[in-house]
Amino acid sequence: MSELEEKEEDSEEEPKLKYERLANGVTEILQTDAASCMTVHDKFLALGTHFGKVFLLDVQGNVTQKYEISSVKINQISLDESGEHVGICSEDGKVQVFGLYTREGFHESFDCPIKVVALHPQFSKSNNKQFVTGGNKLFLYERNWLNRWKTSTLHEGEGSITNIKWRANLIAWANNVGVKIYDISTKQRITNVLRDNTCLRPDMYPCSLCWKDNTTLIIGWGSSVKICSVKERDPTEMRDLPSRYVEIVSAFETEFFISGLAPLADQLVTLYYVKENSDHMEEEFRARPRLDIIQPLPESCEEISSDALTVRNFQENECRDYRLEHSEGESLFYIISPKDIVVAKERDQDDHIDWLLDKKKYEEALMAAEISFKNIKRHDVQKIGMAYINHLVEKGDYDTAARKCQKVLGKNMDLWENEVYRFKTIGQLKAISQYLPRGDLRLRPAIYEMILHEFLMTDYEGFATLIREWPGELYNNMTIVQAVTNHLKKDPTNSILLTTLAELYTYDQRYDRALEIYLRLRHKDVYQLIHKHNLFSSIEDKIVLLMDFDKEKAVDMLLDNEDKISTDRVVEELKDRPELLHVYLHKLFKRDHHKGQKYHEKQISLYAEYDRPNLLPFLRDSTHCPLEKALEICQQRHFVEETVFLLSRMGNCRRALQMIMEELGDVDKAIEFAKEQDDAELWEDLISYSIDKPPFITGLLNNIGTHVDPIILIHRIKEGMEIPNLRDSLVKILQDYNLQILLREGCKKILVADSLSLLHKMHRTQMRGVRVDEENICEACHVTILPSDTAQPFSVVVFHCRHMFHKECLPSQGTIPGVQYCNICSAKRRGPGSGILDMKK
């Protein structure tokens, strides 16, 4: 890939940060002075210069306070977390620590330059009045209870101290040898991280230190980055060792020299110094500092973004001239150089949308704005949408532009109308037509009519589609009807225009007009229109047209609505079309055999002419057709089966059988007919007719076994007559006879078994006792069956039928001595009940 292609590919990646110069008072300061250091608090900034001045600035760069500290370079400014105290050191050895809002302070001058100073993060608290300074030695200053400052040396002998960072109880500093970490709570030094790039001068390529959190220190030195984690040591392993130790969790080399580091979530922001002899860079980028966002890995890093910064006088700056400070609260990054201060901040959603619009990625910009509409401040969703629509129109993508109108324009009627007229101007009304508002929100009728006229002029099918899809309230119906009518004058047979006109008439409730068109076109919706709008009075004179179109649907509709169009009216309309009349009357008869009874006579000839297969079922089911008329028609047309049925129904069974035998020659049908009539004389006639016809004799032998004694037929067969399949027929007769015998025997066995079972059941039932108590009465005298005084003698007779009598109330015994019968059951002929119990006392 060429360098140009690489550049184009890089330009498609959105930057992670945005930049602006810190102006206002800073601009004036740097015109006559140069920045040497700066520290950042959430509320304000503190800037030190080469001429020994310290300026307090607001976040816009306006000077709020100025301090004349020295006449030479300010090396370091330190603030506590509260922003109430500041520590300053300068190249001439001066150290000042004072309160911004109090008079307390520390002022000291040393005989050597003091490069760094760091206040305790909680310096404002009385028990944390501590700070450290670094020159040739690292001094710790503590204020005791007598309000005096006590000095102790924490480290010396390894060259000049170039950087100090204090976080919680941990102090990290860098000298010529490496980086040390000191635990002020235990007063122990817990680690020494050696410098990797020993060939580089520490004063030209100073160490960058940054605490990510209370236990994570980031070290950048030369082109080397190390991330150190401070951990608690296991108490069992302490012995004489410090209570904490440091583990390097990530160490890697970078492409350029590091001028500053800052954390950004789990990533790192790195400020690089790029040397002029980096021959792989383009000429215009040489020596510009770079601000990269990288993702640290255990032994390497992944570049997320990279920006080359054009700071003022970058060609004259060295690695030590750049610093990177950050504000943890707002993720602001300050790039400090002698003549320029640049602020980098994370891009917000507005910046993201700006970039997308600049790259003409309008759809993504619109989506981003819709998702974050509550958070964006400089952009408006609708304006972005309009820009997107304009872009699509310029590209010629009219369909997409019209589709986006639905989403972007929303309920703004003025914008909708403007867009419609714009699409008309460019000749693309068709594109926007399907997306116009058509619900509760509507445009002026003229807008919709303008689009319909456009379609009517150029696209009949599109016009018809819009008429079907658009509610009729959107436009003036009469105006469109008139326009369609005018076009039909030029093309009167155009089915699309006719159908559309019918739909317009339907909406306008001129159903008769719509019905005429539908019938003319034989349109499938004609029946739905009739049902939906109850147009039965309008179709009384159009029944033939309806049936010509679809006989089945028409007849079903007419029969379902007999209360609206009578049968007589339908028959009258169809009298000149007998084939249609037959279809109607046939379906009527199928629904109800009695409804059209006065037309049954007429139906005979209709069935004979148009539907003979259904003539015989009609004759069987109808009880109202005249048999003589039917017989006459069937005989005229030589309909043998129908004639046979009519003759048999009229009682002339012999003539009917004769026709079957003579005209049909079908012995099986003749036998079936004889079986149906079950008449001995018919059987005699059938035998007599068949006796000289061997095939008929075979049929009779095979079928009459259950109705006529086969011996009668066999005796009448002439001797010597050759009968086909005689042996098989005789075998079948014998088999049928044997089957009958077996059936009789089986029935007899079943009958005997059932009788015996019932006899046993009756015997068991009659052997059971019968309860007799004071509630029972005598069936003769209707007095309680038991006497009130049971001590007196009494006699009671109880029959198996459960009727009870006093013995003296029974009539005399019958003809059989010793046997009595219940006179109630005997009278009702329910069968005799003999006495089952004779109770005496």
From TrEMBL:
Does the keyword field hold Transit peptide?
A: no
What GO molecular-function term can you cite, just one? zinc ion binding
Keyword list (alphabetical) reads: Autophagy, Cytoplasm, Cytoplasmic vesicle, Endosome, Golgi apparatus, Lysosome, Membrane, Metal-binding, Protein transport, Transport, Zinc, Zinc-finger
Tell me where the CHCR repeats sit in this chain.
555-699
Q: Membrane topology for this entry?
A: Peripheral membrane protein
Its predominant location is cytoplasm
Compartment(s): Cytoplasm, Cytosol; Early endosome membrane; Endosome membrane; Late endosome membrane
What positions does the domain RING-type occupy? 778-826
Instruction: Tell me which PROSITE patterns the record gives.
Output: CHCR (PS50236), ZF_RING_2 (PS50089)
Record keyword Protease present: no
Q: What GO cellular component entries does it have?
A: clathrin-coated vesicle; cytosol; early endosome membrane; Golgi apparatus; HOPS complex; late endosome membrane; lysosomal membrane
Instruction: Output the SMART domains linked to this UniProt entry.
Output: CLH
InterPro entries membership? Beta-prop_Vps41, Clathrin_H-chain/VPS_repeat, TPR-like_helical_dom_sf, Vps41, Vps41/Vps8, WD40/YVTN_repeat-like_dom_sf, WD40_repeat_dom_sf, Znf_RING
* Similarity comment text for this entry: Belongs to the VPS41 family.
Q: What does this protein do?
A: Plays a role in vesicle-mediated protein trafficking to lysosomal compartments including the endocytic membrane transport pathways.
Mind telling me what this protein is named?
Vacuolar protein sorting-associated protein 41 homolog
